[in-house]
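Observation: inputs received (chain + flavin-adenine dinucleotide).
Thought: call the complex predictor directly.
Action: predict_structure
Action Input:
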Amino acid sequence: MKKPKIVIIGGGASGLFAAIVASRNNTDVTIIEKNSRIGKKILATGNGRCNYTNVNADQNAYNHPEFVLSVLKQFSAHQTIEFFQELGIEPKVEDFGKAYPLSEQASSIIDVFLYELEKLNVAIKTDTQAKEIVKKGSGFLIHLDHGDALYADKVILATGGKAMPSSGSDGLGYPIARKLGHHVSTIFPALVKLTLDSPYLKSLNGVKITSTVQLINKNQVVQEENGDILFTNYGISGPTILDISRKANELLIAKEAPIINVILLDSLSKIQVYERFQKFKDKPVDQSLIGLVNKRIIPALIKQAGIQKHQTLICELTHLEKEFLINLLFNWHFPVTGSKGFEDAQVTAGGIEVSEIDADTLESKLIEGLYFTGEVMDIDGLCGGYNLQWAWSSAYVAAQNASK
Ligand SMILES: Cc1cc2nc3c(=O)[nH]c(=O)nc-3n(C[C@H](O)[C@H](O)[C@H](O)COP(=O)(O)OP(=O)(O)OC[C@H]3O[C@@H](n4cnc5c(N)ncnc54)[C@H](O)[C@@H]3O)c2cc1C
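Observation:
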């Protein structure tokens, strides 16, 4: 019997994984990749170490938990670790369940993929861009650049989102899906650094602290994270901010005015700070803050509290100045003006509407034989290995079903 021909559009994380799974199911697989090499983005993941899964991955780490549930059940983080172990990748599990290859090299993932794909005889067409997919009888005709075309019994759209377009994922999958009748929800950058409005950013540039960060909208805390943050000359970065960025961008799109609240002293009470000020009432205000907060933050706090001179003694502060200063230590507000955009984002929020995709098979509900994997769908996860886990799990499910 003739092997079913599966064409996978996109040689990124999910496309490569799907190719291995489909090919092991005795199908004839071709990968179409517009870059000159496959897996370019994988090399950039986890700061070059590839945080390829999170052992705690469950549906709650994603924007559509009910949709991802069945997919994660079919291929979990545990199965991912085993799958990669079988390919040769030993896991190194770090804080918060983040798993990396023991080699600490993202290139290890590409190397084992390439070896396996070659072993399985998967055809890889690099420097080839898919332009359009047209339904032809029970199969598909895939129009490529340079006027070429390719026939497929089944197609897996693994074109990724729009984050880091220099890696090849520049949103080309969306018009392809739209032409087939699919809808694409508003896309915007997530897991991205935020730009802030503050006159103190230049002086704060490079200051790294561990604190609690809140995202506030209309005086309500909409998200709270604790961890490292880094001030930059444009705004703020760090894992906590990346996780908050999705909601912040969503609010900006809705024309809201979100605020980042940095709680510098999350382990002390205001009363304790009043007591400290009483104890150090004969110290200059800048000296009184030494040992309490990062030294480089102190000038900005004093200025923002409206205190003219750093040398002013605590006992010389007006009641209002003291109140203002203490309040800043617990509520340091920065209006969010935007983000560093898709160029800097780790993931795309939004994508092909999940209501048009079968959550058990990842087959299109509109076009039989068309499957989706990875970020091209309206699925994104938290920072920490969850997005690659989605790429692997969705690839497994789509490939298993496409090869039937
Ligand atoms: C800097 C950075 C760091 C990251 N770090 C992590 C991490 O440590 N852990 C984690 O879980 N996630 C991480 N992510 C997110 C993760 O890399 C993505 O979620 C994941 O790669 C998505 O896989 P995908 O297969 O959907 O798309 P991609 O990996 O983006 O692959 C899509 C591929 O399709 C190709 N393509 C697109 N359109 C066409 C077309 N029309 N024809 C042919 N080819 C096409 C592209 O060139 C690309 O190679 C990171 C992302 C970035 C940008």
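Thought: report the result.
Final Answer: The radius of gyration is 25 Å. Residues 9-15, 32-35, 40-41, 44-46, 50-51, 129-130, 158-160, 163-164, 168-169, 172-173, 346-347, 374-376, 385-388, 391 surround flavin-adenine dinucleotide (CB under 6 Å).
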